[in-house]
Write a structure and sequence with these properties.
The chain has about 60 residues and is mostly beta strands. It contains no helices and seven strands. The chain is globular and about 35 Å long.
Amino acid sequence: MAAHGDNVAFGSGKQAVVLATISGGSVTVDAEFSDNRGEVLALAFSPDGGLLAAGDASLFLVPF
């Protein structure tokens, strides 16, 4: 899982990354991406929150 401000990203366990917004205690899913080749193991936002990178079990790195 990775967070930046109100935005959070997490691996869904099915080779996908879910982007969501947290506000007032509720979570709203904004998008889901299935570009990874294996189970998502690592996520990181860039310092400004404009980019997200996802690393998976097949050693594949996907920039978003």
